[in-house]
Amino acid sequence: MKKKLSYHWIVVGALFIQYAATIGATTNSFNVLSPAIMKEGFSATQVQLIPMATGVLGLAMCLVLPQLLDKYGFTRMMLIGTVVAGGAMAMRSFCHSFTSMIVWAVIQGLGFCVICGVPFGIVLTNWFHESRGTATGIAASGSALGGFLFVQGTNIMIEHMGWRSANLMLAVVSTALLLPIFIFILRATPEEKGLLPYGITPEMVEEEKRELAEAGETAPDTIRGIMFKDFVKTPAFWWLCITMFVLQFSTMGVYSNINIYLQREMGHTAMFAGLVYAVVVLSQAPGKVLVGWIHDKFGVVWGSAYGLILGAVFFVFLLMAGQPAMAMIMGIAFGMRNAISSVMPPYMTAYIVGRRDYTKIFAIISIISGAACTLGPLFGGFLYDKTGSFNLAWIIFGVMFVIVFFISIITFRAGEGMDEL
Description:
This protein is mainly α. The protein is built from 18 helices and no strands. The longest helix is centred in the N-terminal third of the chain and has 32 residues, at about 5-40.
């Protein structure tokens, strides 16, 4: 008899599309829209402030998102966030001033924060007790494959229709993909579908009930973990914050400056640098699946070791990136390593704190990660402006890659057992 596909993996497929339609269609595609927008008289600084406004100010929503989800429900908030983000993105096509661009970027960020990041982690944490790393890797790879496809499509649309029509089409397609997913497929918990988290069977629950009844204790609760008010008082909370900040600061510091490095210091053309960027994006897809599987099979320590090894390979080939073949290998290594920046935050947070108060805790982690993602690129660019080279930036980011390995182990050890409280 053919085994029926578990609904849990249908949820993973829906999250894959969600990431493709958010990160892929908006964040990645904006890198292609930027040069076309600049041709209308906007400066490079102004153009870079647009995604920054979307990202940084949207993080403010993370502070109140847990309360909004509790009050209005997961599905309703996802639909509101989708309409707000898609509508604001569409309005960019009709903007002719920098001020109006920023206003709609801020509104887009508010909607974007609602539908991406925190909800992604909530769903995976609630739906998966086992194979959570693999599920996270598969779902997160949507941003890589979706990013590649949307970037190629955006290039074609800009060439034939101009950036305004291309941007409008991206907003429409993104919204059209997200709405059915949130209406028909995704729910915050498996219990809403009459299911248990993946890896927990009814027999396991009944067995635990019998054991607890014999001991005179209460019935088992599949929703376990430490509360936020208790977690902030532990060293594990601060180690987790530091780990995620250093991870995202160093990763995005490298990621956002590779293109400039290849052109300014290695002498490659913009077209070749764009090709390497495409390789980095595509390599993240298998990298996310692989690092998720490693977390499930071997644990957090080996997942961190994966990042350290791939980071070392990346820096070796970074120094030889003047040769096209070496630059391509560098792109593959960094794309594979960059996968941990998507998989590790939700996985490690859930592994340590459990399900009980995950939403509030991961919202704080997301804010810290978002701030690091913004500051890392600025720090790398600042060092380049001051020294005329990325050498010092690469040294600092390389040291941070090593630090991430050690502090992630400290964080893991400090948080052991909290997810079962």
